[in-house]
Amino acid sequence: MRAILLILLLTSAASADEMSPIGCNALGVSAANAADRLEDVLKTMHGAAFRAAVPHMPPSAQPAAADVDDTRKVAEISVSDYAKALRDFSEKIKNWGK
After folding, report:
1. Long-range contacts for 53-59 (Cβ within 8 Å, ≥24 apart)?
2. pTM for the model
3. Chain centroid offset of residue 82 CA
4. What share of the chain is helix, strand, coil (3-state, %, to 5)?
C-alpha cells in the first residue's frame, strides 16, 4: 500500500510542476478534507461493542467472530495509513507549482 502511495506521490510531483500554486493548494485542501473524513470513519471502526458481544455468542460462532475482528483491525490500520498518506501529500503539495 505504501509503495502505491509513494508511486502516486512521485507521479503527482511531475504533474504538480505544471499546476499553479492555487491548483496545488486546492488539491492539498482536498486531500486534507479526505483525510478528515477517513479519520471520522476510523472513529466508527474501533469495534468495542462487537468485542464485548463475542463472549455472549454461541461457541460455534466465536472463531468466526475472532476472524471478523482481526479483519476489522487490518482494515483500521489500512485506513489510518491512507489518511496519514493523504495528510503528508497535502503538506507536500502546498505552494507547489509555477
Report:
1. none
2. 0.68
3. 3
4. 80, 0, 20
